[in-house]
Amino acid sequence: MGNINIDNAYTIAHSPDADDIFMYYAIKFGWITTPYKLYNLALDIETLNLACFEARYDISAISFALYPFICNHYVLLQTGMSFGEQYGPKLIKKKGAKLKRNFKVALSGKYTTNAMIFRLTYPDAYPVYMNFLEIEEGVLNGVVDAGVLIHESILNFSHELEVEAFIWDMWQDLAKEQLPLPLGGMALRRSIPLNRAIVLEKILTKAIQIGLRYKPLLSKMLLDNHLVRVNAQELDTYLQLYANEHSHTMSDIQIQALEKLYAIGYNAGFYPSLLKLQDHFIPKEYTNIRYS
């Protein structure tokens, strides 16, 4: 499914992991009043990243590391973010294994944030990109020497595996200061009229706020409808990490962390130019001007 070519209808594409499901489904369950018809689909995050090069979806979840590559097609929303605070993806290997300098590693996609941070930290490793759901099995079967687990996989993986390193620690070493770890966010097509873009961002923000306010009920509905891949305890733990009070409205420290990520990427040659985020948000002051 691509964009919905109907007046007042928009597609929201998100990943199938629990935090994205939680942040969207207050809309799906009809808890949010909206002037637009909103259709959703859930796809692997790297599939969404690649689709953004074609501006395939009106609103899409993205890896933050992708954004400089698509900034001419999308604005970055200041809602629907996942940051790590002393936690995040994990580099895992078989217990007792010794990794060589050029070890083969499974990553969840070329444009994911964890892949960028990993590649800067382990430039001699040989990356193999695969669906995040296949990474644990790839390490267990010896297809790769190690893998970076993301999403709910960080909570519960085989006892035959152990953590070699944390993306959080790699980020701290690169950033040289205490900043939250940028992981993923939401982007909106620039071709959407500005007044509608403002409303859509408010809808998504409110959906997260309402979801958090009624978290026990929403969590139960997600579990009862088999919309998440974890049990109740794991869901609660995961949401505390990635769908929390820091997810609905981007803060100054989060903006600082993102600009640090993009500066690191630019200095390392990942990006052709240095991004200033204030030029890529929806200009909310338009509302006051338009209705003054």
UniProtKB/TrEMBL annotation:
<dbReference type="InterPro" id="IPR003773">
    <property type="entry name" value="Menaquinone_biosynth"/>
</dbReference>
<protein>
    <recommendedName>
        <fullName>1,4-dihydroxy-6-naphtoate synthase</fullName>
        <ecNumber>4.1.99.29</ecNumber>
    </recommendedName>
</protein>
<comment type="pathway">
    <text>Quinol/quinone metabolism; menaquinone biosynthesis.</text>
</comment>
<dbReference type="Pfam" id="PF02621">
    <property type="entry name" value="VitK2_biosynth"/>
</dbReference>
<dbReference type="GO" id="GO:0016874">
    <property type="term" value="F:ligase activity"/>
</dbReference>
<keyword id="KW-0456">Lyase</keyword>
<dbReference type="GO" id="GO:0016830">
    <property type="term" value="F:carbon-carbon lyase activity"/>
</dbReference>
<dbReference type="InterPro" id="IPR030869">
    <property type="entry name" value="MqnD"/>
</dbReference>
<dbReference type="GO" id="GO:0009234">
    <property type="term" value="P:menaquinone biosynthetic process"/>
</dbReference>
<feature type="active site" description="Proton acceptor">
    <location>
        <position position="151"/>
    </location>
</feature>
<keyword id="KW-0436">Ligase</keyword>
<comment type="similarity">
    <text>Belongs to the MqnA/MqnD family. MqnD subfamily.</text>
</comment>
<comment type="function">
    <text>Catalyzes the conversion of cyclic dehypoxanthine futalosine (cyclic DHFL) into 1,4-dihydroxy-6-naphthoate, a step in the biosynthesis of menaquinone (MK, vitamin K2).</text>
</comment>
<keyword id="KW-0474">Menaquinone biosynthesis</keyword>
